[in-house]
């Protein structure tokens, strides 16, 4: 990539990865097909489809951007290590497999580049619903003769944990109440999908979710909501280059605190039905402090991108990571490009510099790789980003979309 271009143009926002993955897993809950539209073409989506095929699902993905998944006859109840190690979200099959078939074996995900990421809350919740769960040979092995509703108090509002519990509870006997549930828009989107399949879930999007078990679920057809993290990443690119970026999308785009942070950085942002437009008018962004938190707080998945923005902004900023304990792998790489960032435990202090310089850098995880692309957009000379496969897990056609905005970017 070569930096220095002012971005100007339009981007069509893809369907949300973190809504697509749980909804694909939800297809396990019915013997009838679940058809999903606005399905993004991402490595993680393909990994989830491979996993569903291993379980016995028939996937009909004829049209680009949509797939129909049907699991009539299970062939396996096991999510193997080879898939789980490339995508932690494979854990999302645990709840639906246990809910519909009474058995699931999912390889333990282990650590990853953003922290230890335990799954104790998923396991404890399933145990309180009557499942027997053991760790054996690197696998979580769960069995039940019929789950029963329970009251589950989550110590932290875990996103995939909340989704797993909802999917386990929809076919359970009686009511399940999740307290301190994750409130992310993707949790609500999954609940809407499950309700369209015949589930009885209320309160999704709030801290208390109630699920009344039903006998069986049917097929359904759903559109996946737009990806708020992809959208936010392109808006930050517009702000960093002093440019103008217009986003187009179908459905509701929940940007929350990200919009406020962009306005604090000095961007003019307009929004209306199906579009958001950011105009920086050639200005250099101002530093913005951010502290990540579960929704409706500032998303951890946008932290790396705002670290990159602050690296070239006027002033000093503190960026605090409250959700994952080790999500600052991008900092060392941004420093290689000339950023002035001082790590202070769970915070970093960033002194904005006027210019970054291109250099070879290494992507370590999905959002870290996005922050390196953003930094490369404003770095003098050429930046070569290694291990871009991390990016393909969560950004659809990223080089086409950036080229369309006028960036000099090429896959080598
Ligand atoms: N946690 C536990 N025990 C558990 C589960 C979670 O201690 O059993 C802790 C985690 O270690 C973390 C906190 O709870 O400190 C919150 O993690 P959460 O479980 O909410 O994260 P997740 O469900 O594994 C999802 C997204 C992530 C996103 C986080 C936070 C999906 C598929 N993944 O992960 O997305 O960062 O929520 O919003 O929805 C990404 O897209 O780049 C990504 C990493």
Radius of gyration: 21 Å
Largest sheet: 4 strands, mixed
Low-confidence stretches: none
Strand order of the main beta sheet, please?
1-14-16-15
Please report the distance between the alpha carbons of the first and last residues: 10 Å
Question: Rough shape?
Answer: globular
Helix content: 25-40%
Structure in words:
The chain is α/β, with parallel strands linked by helices. It has 14 helices and 24 strands. It has helices at 17-26, 43-55, 81-84, 94-101, 120-128, 159-169, 185-196, 228-240, 257-264, 303-311, 329-336, 366-378, 389-392, 398-404, and strands at 8-12, 34-37, 58-60, 66-70, 78-79, 103-107, 132-136, 139-143, 151-153, 175-179, 200-202, 209-212, 220-223, 244-248, 268-272, 275-279, 290-291, 316-320, 340-344, 347-351, 356-357, 360-362, 379-380, 384-386. The strands form 7 sheets. A 4-stranded mixed beta sheet has the order 1-14-16-15. The longest helix has 13 residues, at 43-55. It is globular and about 65 Å long. The N and C termini lie close together (10 Å). The mean pLDDT is 96. Uridine-diphosphate-2(N-acetylglucosaminyl) butyric acid (EPU) binds at residues 17-18, 21, 89, 115, 117-122, 156, 158-161, 182, 300-301, 323-324, 366-367, 394.
């Amino acid at each position: 990539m070569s930096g220095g271009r002012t971005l100007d143009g339009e981007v069509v926002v893809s369907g949300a990865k973190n809504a697509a993955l749980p909804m694909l897993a939800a297809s396990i809950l019915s013997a009838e097909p679940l058809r999903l539209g606005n399905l993004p073409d991402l490595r993680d989506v393909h990994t989830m489809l491979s996993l569903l095929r291993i379980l016995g699902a028939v996937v009909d993905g004829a049209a680009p951007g949509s797939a129909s998944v049907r699991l009539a006859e299970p062939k396996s109840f096991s999510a193997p290590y080879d898939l789980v190690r490339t995508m932690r979200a494979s854990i999302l099959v645990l709840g639906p497999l246990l809910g519909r078939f009474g058995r699931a074996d999912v390889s333990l995900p282990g650590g990853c580049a953003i922290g230890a990421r335990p799954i104790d809350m998923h396991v404890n919740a399933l145990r309180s619903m009557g499942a027997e769960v053991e760790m054996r040979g690197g696998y979580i092995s769960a069995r039940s003769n019929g789950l029963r509703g329970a009251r589950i108090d989550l110590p932290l509002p875990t996103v995939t944990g909340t989704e797993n519990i909802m999917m386990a509870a929809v076919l359970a006997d009686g009511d399940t109440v999740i307290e301190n549930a994750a409130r992310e828009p993707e949790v609500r989107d999954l609940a809407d999908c499950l309700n369209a399949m015949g589930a009885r879930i209320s309160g999704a999007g709030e801290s208390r979710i109630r699920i009344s078990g039903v006998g069986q679920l049917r097929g359904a057809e759903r559109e996946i909501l737009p990806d708020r993290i992809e959208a936010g990443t392109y808006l930050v690119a517009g702000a960093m280059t002093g440019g103008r970026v217009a986003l187009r999308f179908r459905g509701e785009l929940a940007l929350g605190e990200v919009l406020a942070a962009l306005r604090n950085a000095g961007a003019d942002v307009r929004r209306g039905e199906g579009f958001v437009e950011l105009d920086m008018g050639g200005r250099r962004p101002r530093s913005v402090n951010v502290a990540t938190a579960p929704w409706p707080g500032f998303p951890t998945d946008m932290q790396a991108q705002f670290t990159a923005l602050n690296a070239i902004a006027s002033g000093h900023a503190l960026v605090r990571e409250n959700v994952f304990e080790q999500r600052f792998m991008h900092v060392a790489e941004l420093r290689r490009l000339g950023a002035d960032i001082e790590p202070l435990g769970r915070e970093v202090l960033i002194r904005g510099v006027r210019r970054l310089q291109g250099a070879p850098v290494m992507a370590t995880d999905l959002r870290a790789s996005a922050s390196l692309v953003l930094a490369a957009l404003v770095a003098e000379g050429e930046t070569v980003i290694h291990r871009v496969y991390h990016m393909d897990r969560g950004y659809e056609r990223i080089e086409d979309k950036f080229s369309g905005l006028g960036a000099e970017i090429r896959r080598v």
